[in-house]
């Protein structure tokens, strides 16, 4: 059974972006120390074009070989002319409006998203599945999330896009590793209590 991990950046008050999802205020916290952490522990979570620009697109995946994201999150890459933003993984984009995939490396999931995730989780393999977001897709997949890796940056938004765009429900997680960084960022790993 492979794990579904929601690996996400958020503000202290739990928002993954501004009201429209804009997360650019978080980018400045990816400094030298934090980038080294990402390169060492989660290199596959950085987009292929970013890795190439930084000169480390040859780093092997450490934890994930599959990524799932919502169409609105995928749109951010499309707007930059990038059709295959995570070419180093199998890519799935949830969408009912994209009738044709913009790239042969990207599979569109228009049907039952939860069923598709369960099918992927049931595969054999040492690597897990990276749930990239955004809020809508994460909210729909909350029941399938086995692990959370939350990168909290030392900023407060006041309001914004929540981590999960779902209704109220109490789901318990167990705290695992906690990493702190010189710039005030904290990365916490949680596993779902089953
Ligand atoms: N802080 C972070 O680390 C982080 C990470 C990722 C994203 N984000 C932010 O999140 C924002 C986007 O989040 P969002 O909640 O607006 O959107 P999203 O979850 O990325 O995408 C929503 C879209 O996914 C499709 N979708 C959702 N459920 C589906 C289902 N069951 N079956 C098929 N398609 C489905 C629909 O696409 P169609 O309309 O095409 O049908 C829907 O409009 C971005 O602005 C980004 O900046 C932040």
From TrEMBL:
Domain of life of the organism encoding this protein: Bacteria
Domain Bacterial bifunctional deaminase-reductase C-terminal: 2-186
Signal peptide, first to last residue: none
PANTHER family: 2,5-DIAMINO-6-RIBOSYLAMINO-4(3H)-PYRIMIDINONE 5'-PHOSPHATE REDUCTASE, DIHYDROFOLATE REDUCTASE FAMILY PROTEIN (AFU_ORTHOLOGUE AFUA_8G06820)
Protein name per its UniProtKB record: Dihydrofolate reductase family protein
Lineage: Bacteria, Bacillati, Actinomycetota, Actinomycetes, Kitasatosporales
């Amino acid at each position: 059974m492979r794990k579904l991990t929601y690996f996400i950046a958020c503000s202290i008050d739990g928002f993954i972006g501004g009201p429209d999802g804009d997360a650019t205020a978080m980018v400045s916290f990816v400094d030298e120390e934090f980038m080294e952490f990402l390169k060492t522990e989660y290199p596959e979570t950085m987009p292929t074009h970013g890795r190439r620009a930084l000169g480390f697109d040859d780093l092997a995946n450490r934890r994930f070989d599959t990524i799932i994201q919502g169409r609105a999150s995928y749109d951010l890459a499309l707007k930059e002319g990038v059709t295959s933003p995570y070419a180093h993984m199998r890519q799935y984009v949830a969408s009912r409006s994209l009738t044709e995939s913009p790239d042969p490396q990207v599979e569109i999931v228009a049907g039952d998203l939860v069923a598709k995730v369960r099918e992927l989780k049931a595969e054999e393999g040492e690597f897990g599945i990276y749930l990239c977001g955004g809020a809508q897709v994460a909210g729909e997949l909350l029941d399938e999330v086995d692990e959370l890796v939350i990168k909290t940056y030392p900023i407060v938004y006041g309001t914004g896009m929540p981590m999960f765009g779902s209704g109220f429900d109490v789901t318990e997680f167990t705290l695992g590793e906690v990493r702190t960084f010189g710039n005030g960022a904290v990365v916490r790993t949680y596993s779902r209590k089953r």
